[in-house]
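Objective 1.3, modelling of assemblies. Example input:
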Amino acid sequence: MGIFDYFKSKSAPSSASVAKDRLQIIVAHERSKRHQPDYLPQMQQEIIDVIRKYVNIGNEDVQIQLDNTDDCSILELNVTLPEQN
Amino acid sequence: MSLSGDTTLAKIIVVTSGKGGVGKTTSSAAIGTGIALKGHKTVIIDFDVGLRNLDLIMGCERRVVYDFVNVINKEATLSQALIKDKRTKDLFILPASQTRDKDALTIEGVQGVLEELAKDFEYIICDSPAGIEKGAQMALYFADAAIVVTNPEVSSVRDSDRILGILQSKSKRAEDGKEPIEEHLLLTRYHPGRVALGEMLSVSDVEDILAIPLLGVIPESEAVLKASNQGTPVILDTDSEAGLAYMDAVDRLMGEERPLRFLEVQKKGFIKRLLGG
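Predicted structure (tokens):
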């Protein structure tokens, strides 16, 4: 660090804190997928295909999540339908 | 150890990371040497079949005759393939094959070699290849403990988390429903000056994200390259911060309390700071 660095503004968040924030999000996301069964992506695709027979939706409009609690598993399916015109 | 039936006291420790180039082999060599220096009979196995390098780091590359795959295929006995370290008593190296690929490793083959080693050794260090494929999975499958080598950098931290997931689901201990593999975080190539400037993830940042116990922090050090140039494990360089930090990590691995050190920025003189040196 030379003498000119002392005049630089220090207002922006440090790159290390940006790195930490990004990592916390991606790691949490990947951990939540870790315990999902292998068939889930394919099942998600098939569900999308069925819905698409009737409504025009994109892949990102369907969210599927499997949550395991102590005594049961909950499959949560979230479909965002396009606005009706 | 989590091998079949017979109870031996050998402890199998995998040194792993997911990402390549973070210091697995350097750490395997240093930690294996450190454990042997404490008087425990130790063997370091190079699992990086096809890309062997532990022999170079340990300075025994010209003494390799037979390798791990030869032993698995019964083309050589274990005692023919084991290389006795010239500097450290109680330390042996089992080199990887340079001419085969990772498919030469089988669960049964690896298990057979580990069972034979466990009769004779207290510590078996498995130096994992990079990646999360077969070679890395073989290296961790029978482990009792794992040292996850991580650099304070986004891709390394993410890959370490991936490998933690594999340790928890695809190891023999996980498959058998036994007590899980003991996990240890080893942070390497740490640069306290850059952390202070907010340019590098800090120890506590990485601990927060990975949430596993910290075994040690190895500062970025010129001594590491110098040691590998010479084929000497860096832990033997007791004038270097990296060597001392590895020894601290070995002490902690053996259950001793050691405070962290070398995490503070070294103060530079005023003139040096002014000139940006």
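Chain A touches chain B through 18 residues (CB under 8 Å).
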